[in-house]
Amino acid sequence: MKVALAQTNPVVGDIEGNSRKILRFVRDAEREGAELVVFPELAVLGYPPRDLLLKRAFIRDNLAAVERIAAQTGTTTVVVGYARPNETPRGKTLWNTAAVCREGRIVANHGKHLLPTYDVFDESRYFQPCPELAVARIPAGGREVPVGVSICEDLWNQEQLDGRRLYDADPIRALVNAGAELLLNLSASPFYVDKQAKRVHLFGRQVVRYGVPLVYVNQVGGNDDLLFDGASAALAADGSLVAQAKAFEEDLLIVDLDNRPAGLIHPYPEPVAGVYEALVMGTRDYVNKCGFSAVVIGLSGGIDSAVTAVLAAAALGPDRVHTVAMPSRFSSDHSLSDAATLARNLGVDHRVIPIERMHAAVELELRPHFGDRAPDVTEENIQARVRGNVLMSLSNKFGWLLLTTGNKSELAVGYCTLYGDMCGGLAVISDVPKTMVYDLARYINHKAGREIIPDSSITKPPSAELRPNQTDQDSLPPYDLLDAILRLYVEEELSADEIAARGFEPAVVKDVIRKVDVNEYKRKQAAVGLKVTTRAFGTGRRMPIAAKYGWEEGTEAPPGGGASQRHKGTK
After folding, report:
1. 6 part of a folded domain
2. If we measure between CA atoms, which residue out of 295, 282, 294 comes closest to residue 530?
């Protein structure tokens, strides 16, 4: 059978635009002689459509679109994902469905059986598990081939990776037992570091277990915080990789399952390169899908804003990127020169707006109201909020999207200022630990073959420059130590004692955990961030704010931990 893996980048809710793209891919596949064309999960709607699925008109429009797509099919079979109403009197009102279309009509529907409700997924909110599993009959090579159609989670049998079953049912086993000679999987599987290797390993074991080849088609593109890497694949019955589509871009990969020519496996990027490509794609799609003409970034001369600016320029082109340096009385000369050098290297618009007079004016007006209280973090945060005001003013005046520049390590421990450096519409590197930010900076320069990010931005001690001689390590552990603790606490959910048992100083562990927990309120107000790790702050991590647990002895809250203390900035 000659199969086309149609890896598309949909816009969530753009049913008309997505349908036109689907038909364009179908025509291209037909010209290549494909007998079967497979699209990703919910390709007509874009994934995840979230509460758009609660709108009855949205569902009606999606049904009409699938019927129009089916009406334009010929002898080539087209399998496309959409939302189908559950017309039975029980359960949720929708099924997550793959429509099998041929010769002008929908000839069969195959629903998703396993509905994920972990991490960023909440499909049980909208869909009913499909109770029926049956093979599709696909004409190919002069006969009807029995094909088992599954959707994303149906293929993810966790028992094969960690020994624990998440579900009682095994849809793949059921399809093979029903006579499937080929497995199809329509997917919308979000990216995180090293996930493709995990997929290929898991899918290969599934294929070997049942001795049936697999075609897996994944969505590509960025939709809000979720990034989809594509890399759709075909595996032979022995579990070997036959073909792999491009990562992080649309692709139409034609695979003849009876003839395995070389050159169909597009290499997947190494981890740091993959994060770079994912963030570039996610930034491009967020800006373009939301209709912004350009972005604006505050350039401090430090590593975080430098990496963010490079990603933005790669995503949008330098003509759509505007950068601003905003020196205060504490800014160093090298910070200004590093920012200017970076902007010149990128070829982006750059301007300098000093904030000293604005900063002084705010302090002057507030001083009588502060009484005899000594200067503290309050005065530091005034600078960050003045800068946020400047950047938001430019954003409002010109319609530019403001990109925030904070990394995951800072966001985790609250080393950021509400209504200051947290201002913005997209947090590009908010799921990138500080140590990985340095990896990205070095990768950027290596990839370019020259110094894009000034070496001094990479080698100098990180500092917010909000008071004289300030460095991040005044109040934080070294970033390699901090990131290791954060990974164990945030991504692996280990307790303070479990982390300390791995060789970390207990007092340092408890202090880091305390900082993470008491700054949850800040993260609830943060801009949308692009997810690149297994556990990001955002839709996949839902922690309470008014809670006491875990970072002190027993379940005590911090001494004197009232709202005024907990809600003051730390940067």
Report:
1. yes
2. 282
152 is catalytic: yes
Closest CA to 253 of 241, 242, 244: 244
Pairing of strands 94-102, 77-85: antiparallel
Supply 100's token pair. 């099998």
How many angstroms separate the CA atoms of 328 and 360, rounded? Answer: 10
Residue 308 burial by CB count (10 A; 0-12/13-18/19+): exposed, middle or buried? Answer: buried
Q: Based on the structure, what is the number of domains in the chain?
A: 2
DSSP 368-384: HHHTTPPP-HHHHHHHH
DSSP at 124: G
DSSP tag of 125: G
Question: Contact, 403 vs 434, CB < 8 A?
Answer: no
In a domain, 489, yes or no: no
Q: Which of 101, 130, 152, 423 is catalytic?
A: 152
- Please give the Cα distance from 389 to 485 (Å, whole number): 34
| pLDDT tens per residue across all 571 residues of the chain | 999 999 999 999 999 999 999 999 999 999 999 999 999 999 999 999 999 999 999 999 999 999 999 999 999 999 999 999 998 999 999 999 999 999 999 999 999 999 998 889 999 999 999 988 889 999 998 899 999 999 999 998 765 556 677 788 889 999 999 999 999 999 999 999 999 999 999 899 889 999 999 999 999 999 999 999 999 999 999 999 999 999 999 999 999 988 877 779 999 999 999 999 999 999 999 999 999 999 999 999 899 999 999 999 999 999 999 999 999 887 666 789 999 999 999 999 999 999 999 999 999 999 999 999 998 889 889 999 999 999 999 999 999 999 999 999 999 999 999 999 999 999 999 999 999 999 999 999 999 999 999 998 888 866 555 555 556 565 688 999 999 999 999 999 999 999 999 999 999 999 999 999 999 999 999 999 999 999 999 888 988 888 877 656 443 333 333 333 333 344 4
Question: What is the residue range of 297's domain?
Answer: 276-467+521-533
The verdict on whether 423 is a catalytic residue reads: no
Out of 41, 153, 410, 465, pick the active-site residue. 41
- For the record, the structure tokens of 194 come out as 């090293």
Residue 380: how many other CB atoms lie within 10 Å: 21
Rounded CA-CA distance 108/197 in Å is 33
Q: Give buried/exposed letters for 16-49 (b at 16+ CB in 10 A, else e).
A: eebbebbeebbeebbeeebbbbbbbbbbbbbbbb
Residue 475: inside a domain, yes or no? no
How many other CB atoms sit within 10 Å of the CB of residue 76? 20
Q: Choose the catalytic residue: 2, 21, 35, 112.
A: 112
Q: Give dist(CA 347, CA 451) in Å, integer.
A: 14
Separation between Cα atoms, residue 166 and residue 164, nearest integer Å = 6
What values do phi and psi take at 132, rounded to 5? -115, 140
With a threshold of 0.85, does the pTM exceed it?
yes
Residue 381, domain CATH: 3.40.50.620
- Clarify whether 520 is annotated catalytic: no
Residue 427 belongs to a domain:
yes
